[in-house]
UniProtKB/TrEMBL annotation:
Domain named EGF-like: residues: 1-37
Protein name per the record: Contactin-associated protein-like 2
Keywords, ordered alphabetically: EGF-like domain
Superkingdom, natural source: Eukaryota
Gene3D superfamilies hit by this protein: 2.60.120.1000, Laminin
Matching InterPro entries: EGF, Fibrinogen-like_C, Fibrinogen_a/b/g_C_dom
Species this protein is from: Acipenser ruthenus (Sterlet sturgeon)
Domain Fibrinogen C-terminal residues, every copy: 36-88
Length: 153
């Protein structure tokens, strides 16, 4: 009898079988249990704070045992409110120069979470914001039609 067809292991768990039973190996999946159903991560930074954890990078799994996988965030717990920052791959103070004659530059950021995962944490959030910081030298900002750089004044 084929016990691993279909695979009863969830979240990418590996199924092995004997003649009359099966077993799931959950190693490296972020889940535990007989069928790799239970997340080993908390659902939010708030949950880590309740466990007495301090500000740091943590893996969260906002839908618990649901279909969305865990992802890494930074939890800031220095205030009464807990702040969750979704991590991206751009290093601070990254220099960017134009790569075309039109002198336009597009910079792509890759985040630690998909849009579905971000939606899962923002749905339960009390407040959300996005912060973007940049510094330019001899550049027109925001694609302004005027020849002078945007001054913000």
């Amino acid at each position: 009898m084929v016990q691993c067809m279909p695979n009863h292991c969830e979240h990418g768990g590996k199924c092995t079988q004997t003649w009359d039973s099966f077993r799931c190996s959950c190693e490296g999946t972020g889940y535990t249990g007989a069928t790799c159903h239970n997340s080993i991560y908390e659902q939010s930074c708030e949950a880590y704070k309740h466990l007495g954890k301090t500000s740091d990078a943590y893996w969260i799994d906002p839908d618990g045992s649901g279909p969305l996988g865990p992802f890494k965030v930074h939890c800031n717990m220095t205030e009464d409110k807990v702040w969750t920052t979704v991590i991206h791959d751009l290093q601070p103070q990254t220099s960017v120069s134009s790569s075309s004659q039109e002198k336009r530059t597009v910079l792509q950021l890759n985040y630690s979470a998909s849009m579905e995962q971000v939606s899962a944490i923002t749905i339960s959030a009390e407040h959300c914001e996005q912060y973007v910081s940049y510094s330019c030298r001899m550049s027109r900002l925001l694609n302004t039609p005027e020849a002078l750089a945007y001054s913000g004044a």
